[in-house]
Structures are given as C-alpha cells and as structure tokens.
Design brief:
168 residues; mainly alpha; 2 domains; 5 helices; 70% helix
C-alpha cells in the first residue's frame, strides 16, 4: 500500500529578521559632526601620524619607542574599529553589550596608556641617541600628547554618556 508523505516547511523569524536587517545597513552621517566623532577622527589621523613617524626610524633599537609604537598602533586599530561601529550604528543591533561602559573603558584606557607612551616618548628623545631620527621622534612626541588630549576629551564625553545612562 502506498504511503503519503507530508512535508511541512516553516520560516524562522530569526532568519527573516537577519535577512531584513543585513540588507539595510544603517549609516549615521551626523556622528562625524558631533564632538566625540570629530575627536575620534582626529585620534585616527594624528595617531596614524604618531606611529608612522616612529615606524620610519630605527625605533626597534630602543625599547621605549617599541612601547610607544605598540600603544599607537593598538589604539589606532581599535579607534578605527569603534568608528566603524558608531558610523554603521552596529551598537543598536547588539543591545546586550553595555556600549556606554565599553566606550568609557576604551577611552579611559587609551587616555592613560597614551599619556604614559607620550611621556616615555618625550623623555626618550635626545640628540645623543641618533641625530638622524631626532626630528621624527620629537614630532611623534608632540603628536602623542595631542592624541592623548583627544582621548581625554572622549573619556570625558564617554563618562557623561555613561553617567546619564546609570542615572535613568
């Protein structure tokens, strides 16, 4: 005797939501017009300048400049990553992550480590080390302090944002 087969197909709401949300990638143009957005772009540009000024020298001969290089590249990559997250509004799609706390911790740690790196950079720049690299190291020291002040500003705005979230 022949058997009848019944096939039932269902559509997951997760799949429908995923395909709908991935097709419309949000872009926040206004973020770059805010003070934190401008500070972030400044951090990226000047942070790139810091590590390229050092990378163009024989920094690997001096451990102090290796530390500055590590901090500059590490936070440059993370700042670019966070800029993409804020520009694409990815933070709205992952509400489980406490983004205000993440931003505060990121900017606070960047400020502290960049301040240490800028001080190390400035104190390591002497004409006795290598006259050929002196100007690059001096310029990187100056820009490291400027980037540090940008991270200090973003830490302040992150704190204000975090504080307003915790009071609600």
């Amino acid at each position: 005797r022949p058997r009848s087969h019944t096939v039932t197909t269902t559509s997951s709401s997760f799949t429908a939501n995923l395909s709908a949300s991935s097709s419309t990638l949000a872009y926040d143009r206004e973020f770059l017009r805010t003070v934190p957005g401008l500070l972030m772009v400044t951090e990226i540009i000047l942070g790139l300048l810091v590590w390229t000024l050092i990378a163009g020298t024989e920094y690997f001969l001096y451990p102090a400049f290796g530390w500055v290089m590590f901090v500059a590249v590490f936070y440059w990559v993370l700042t670019v990553f966070f800029l993409i997250i804020y520009m694409t509004m990815t933070y709205t799609r992952i509400p489980q992550v406490p983004w205000t706390m993440v931003g505060l911790c990121f900017n606070g740690s960047a400020f502290v480590l960049y301040l240490i790196a800028a001080i190390v950079d400035a104190s390591s720049v002497t004409k006795d080390l290598d006259n050929h690299n002196y100007n690059s190291w001096a310029a990187s020291s100056f820009f490291a302090f400027v980037v540090t002040s940008c991270y200090a500003g973003n830490t302040y705005f992150s704190f204000i944002s975090w504080r307003s979230r915790t009071l609600q």
